[in-house]
């Protein structure tokens, strides 16, 4: 199945590669400057920082036990689970690495059971029987994936649960946005090929599983077709009680997903390598014959336009135009509220900092606060109030009409823009403040200067956020309406397109495709109405949008020169720390964006001795609920009480590690070299000839991406090395980011035997 799907996809990819290369070269030559951004853009937002770290319990499926884990979220947003905090500080290998692309974060066992029950129709545990999962506390955190393995965690308090939920959701949001927008050829070629492949199967509209890097997206594409066939073939043959059949089905799905991932990776890498090999010759032809190619394409477009446009305009007038304003309003309200909240959070943080400097005084306090402020955009908890505004997005009634399977595509894209705008505002503020510091005399001058710079930055933010939102609205409207139009026009237009092929010169056939030109014509038929709707919203000053005529050119000519300088490190520059600090000390005091929960709430019973766990003297007075009476005939399930956790921790402390060695099936190896670049939450319809990766969703990169690299199968576990081996440094490259300065210098992970119930390192990124 993988071979068949990838064969068809790679044919689409090869065709789209030539078109994307032509668009890229044309854009480079002709240029297409939009409004100039007023805020500065930070190049490496989270270098050498940890987003978050803390303790939680993880349910280990292999031995059906809850174990304490120390979880670290590095700047690449992977989830790295260690045995405990000491193991992390000693640079021992992590237990599990998780790339969360495609996962959903659930905070209720009932939500999870509902998804599990629907994954295998006809298999539902009888009431009174033990469910597939029991949680020992009232605060679970579950990572659910439609194909890959699931991860079960729990914490002790509601406040912890909310913090971890925000962190997990940030990880999912970042990893979903996995295809590098720095790639001006491969990314648009890939997303267009995915779209063309799905349209060939009569699947139009948004696709929820365009998540992760290219290999993950293709694996999802294969599984989308393969899983129903597997369910039909294997489902009736599963034995045992309902819970066991569900558990077995999840394991089968995960094993198949890993197999598909490995095969997909090999075939996709071969296809991209072949295209890269042919690129120099193709680029040479494009540059030599650019004018002839453009003329040929315009001639083809005029013929297709004459045939398609009258039908498309009728379709737009009858089925699209009446709904554009209501779609736009549904998008504008939550999005603009989210951006307004970003402005409010930024204003409040800077104002609070200024007041604290007045009260506490001095440059030392400024440095301390600026170190925290510089990573405000990457603080999942503080940004949560901004992100939550997008939860209001509803396209009721419009969703069925326009075949929009889910609004999550638009929510995540808007949230990524919010984070980027927040970081741009913060970076501009700190750059301007850093420039002023040398000229200031005393605390009063400093506070006045901070206030003046804040007002200056907020004006720039208002302009940039208006530009970003207008672009987001236009592209979201295109993403909703274009698939609908293509589906409507397909019966009357698609069959007639073959006759236009003869209008393309054979030498230019790699750079001009009839199908793409047809879609451009359809896009043009609705683009005018979309532009007009957004323009009218701006003219009416709805939601603080600026008119298109308000363009700020070079309003601050020296500011962008400042942004090209060396990144500011407030701690090193002003704190006077010794430069001779060891790497181990730097790792131990690694700057963390979110404060550890234990620092905020007192010590929680994760790492105390087994005898003291949750005793009456514990800082957390709340007792977990009593476990239900288990079904005598039910298979072993997860421990559901505190006693079991105590026993688990007691055994763990006595070296309960040399248990069953995991059976590594399906040829999963540890840390293979690969060429991955991460993905996005939706397929695009891009307005040519711009080479932007996608036009269905805003195309600014939310985070910098680097050259692709190693990535084994999602969900694939590999054995953990023994404690004496060299530390495994989690690779950033599944999410497309390089670690500029690694937290620890370690040799690559080598497979050895597992040390605990087959629980190995999951090589996810």
Strand composition percent: 5-15%
Whole-number mean pLDDT: 78
Number of strands: 9
Report the principal-axis shape.
globular
Q: Helicity level, as a percent range?
A: 40-55%
Give the biggest beta sheet. 7 strands, antiparallel
Residue windows where pLDDT falls under 50 for at least 5 positions? 577-581, 596-604, 608-640, 652-713, 715-765
Helix-strand makeup class: mainly alpha
Radius of gyration: 27 Å
SSE run: HEEEHEEHEEHHHHHHHHHHHHHHHHEE
Number of helices: 19
- Record the strand order, biggest sheet: 4-3-2-1-7-6-5
Span of the ends, CA to CA: 25 Å
Report on the architecture of this protein.
With 765 residues, this protein is mostly helical. It has 19 helices and nine strands. It has helices at 2-30, 85-89, 109-119, 158-176, 186-200, 214-234, 242-288, 290-360, 362-373, 380-387, 398-401, 408-436, 442-493, 514-539, 559-562, 570-575, 583-588, 597-601, 642-653, and strands at residues 50-60, 65-74, 79-82, 96-98, 104-106, 140-144, 151-154, 717-718, 761-762. The strands form two sheets. It has a seven-stranded antiparallel sheet, with helices on both faces. Strands 8-9 form a two-stranded antiparallel sheet. Strand 6 and strand 7 (151-154) form a beta hairpin. Helix 8 (290-360) packs across helix 12. The longest helix is centred in the middle third of the chain and has 71 residues, at 290-360. The protein is globular, with a radius of gyration of 27 Å. The two termini are 25 Å apart. Residues 643-675 have a biased composition (Basic and acidic residues). Residues 612-765 are annotated as: Disordered. It comes from Stercorarius parasiticus. This is NIBL1 protein. Residues 742-757 have a biased composition (Polar residues).
């Amino acid at each position: 199945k993988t071979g068949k799907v990838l064969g068809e996809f790679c044919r689409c990819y090869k065709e789209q590669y030539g078109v994307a290369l032509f668009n890229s070269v044309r854009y480079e030559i002709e240029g297409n400057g939009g409004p100039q951004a007023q805020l500065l853009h930070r190049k490496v937002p989270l270098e050498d920082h940890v987003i978050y770290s803390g303790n939680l319990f993880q349910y280990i499926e292999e031995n059906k036990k809850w174990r304490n884990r120390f979880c670290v979220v590095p700047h690449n947003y992977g989830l790295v689970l260690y045995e405990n905090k000491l193991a992390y500080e000693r640079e021992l290998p992590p237990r599990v690495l998780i790339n969360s692309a495609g996962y959903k974060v659930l905070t209720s066992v009932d939500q999870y059971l509902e998804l599990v029950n629907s994954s295998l129709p006809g298999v539902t545990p009888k009431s009174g029987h033990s469910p597939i999962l029991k949680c020992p506390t009232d605060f679970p955190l579950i990572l659910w994936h439609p194909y890959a393995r699931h991860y079960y965690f729990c914490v002790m308090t509601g406040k912890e649960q909310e913090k971890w939920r925000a962190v997990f959701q940030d990880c999912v949001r970042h990893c979903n946005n996995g295809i590098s927008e720095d790639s001006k050829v491969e990314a648009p070629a890939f997303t267009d090929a995915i779209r063309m492949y799905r349209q060939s199967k009569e699947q139009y509209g948004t696709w929820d599983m365009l998540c992760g890097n290219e290999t993950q997206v293709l694996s999802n594409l294969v599984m989308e077709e393969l899983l129903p066939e597997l369910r039909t073939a294997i489902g009736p043959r599963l034995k045992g009680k309902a819970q066991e059949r569900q558990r077995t089905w999840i394991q089968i799905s995960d094993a198949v997903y890993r197999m598909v991932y490995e095969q997909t990776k090999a075939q996709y890498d071969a296809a991209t390598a072949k295209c890269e090999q042919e690129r120099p010759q193709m680029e040479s032809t494009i540059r030599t014959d650019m004018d002839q190619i453009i003329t040929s394409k315009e001639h083809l477009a005029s013929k297709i336009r004459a045939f398609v446009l009258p039908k498309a305009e009728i379709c737009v007038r009858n089925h699209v135009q009446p709904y554009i304003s209501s779609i736009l309003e549904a998008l504008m309200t939550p999005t603009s509220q989210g951006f307004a909240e970003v402005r409010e959070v930024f204003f409040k943080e800077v104002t609070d900092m200024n007041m604290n400097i007045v009260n506490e005084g001095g440059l030392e306090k400024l440095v301390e606060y600026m170190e925290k402020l510089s990573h405000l955009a990457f603080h999942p908890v503080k940004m949560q109030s901004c992100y939550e505004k997008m939860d209001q997005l509803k396209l009721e009634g419009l969703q069925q009409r326009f075949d929009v399977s889910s609004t999550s595509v638009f929510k995540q894209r808007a949230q990524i823009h919010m984070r980027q705008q927040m970081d741009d505002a913060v970076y501009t503020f700190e750059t301007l403040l850093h420039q002023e510091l040398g000229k200031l005399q005393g605390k009063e001058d400093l506070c006045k200067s901070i206030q003046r710079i804040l007002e200056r930055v907020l004006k720039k933010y208002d302009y940039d956020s208006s530009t970003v939102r207008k672009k987001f609205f236009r592209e979201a409207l295109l993403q909703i309406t274009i698939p609908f139009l293509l589906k409507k026009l397909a019966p009357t237009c698609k069959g007639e397109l073959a006759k236009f092929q003869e209008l393309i010169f054979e030498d230019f056939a790699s750079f001009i495709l009839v199908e793409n030109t047809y879609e451009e014509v359809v896009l043009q038929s609705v683009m005018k109405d979309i532009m007009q709707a957004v323009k009218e919203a701006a003219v009416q000053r709805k939601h603080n949008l600026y008119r298109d005529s308000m363009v700020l050119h070079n309003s601050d000519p020296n500011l962008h020169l400042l942004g090209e300088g060396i990144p500011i490190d407030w701690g090193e520059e002003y704190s006077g720390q010794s430069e001779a600090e060891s790497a181990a000390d730097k790792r131990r005091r690694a700057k963390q964006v979110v404060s550890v929960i234990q620092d905020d709430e007192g010590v929680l019973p994760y790492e105390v001795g087994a005898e003291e766990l949750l005793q009456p003297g514990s800082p957390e007075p709340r007792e977990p609920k009593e476990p239900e009476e288990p079904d005598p005939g039910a298979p072993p399930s997860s421990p559901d009480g505190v006693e079991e956790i105590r026993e688990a921790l007691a055994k763990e402390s006595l070296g309960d590690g040399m248990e069953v060695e995991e059976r590594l099936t399906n040829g999963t190896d540890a840390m293979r070299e690969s060429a991955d670049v991460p993905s996005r939450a939706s397929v695009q319809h891009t307005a040519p000839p711009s080479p932007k990766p996608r036009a269905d969703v805003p195309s600014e990169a939310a985070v910098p991406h680097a050259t692709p690299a190693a990535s084994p199968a999602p969900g694939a576990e590999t054995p953990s090395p023994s404690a004496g081996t060299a530390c495994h440094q989690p690779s950033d490259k599944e999410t497309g980011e390089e670690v500029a300065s690694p937290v620890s210098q370690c040799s690559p992970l080598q497979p050895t035997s597992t040390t605990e119930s087959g629980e190995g390192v999951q090589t996810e990124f």
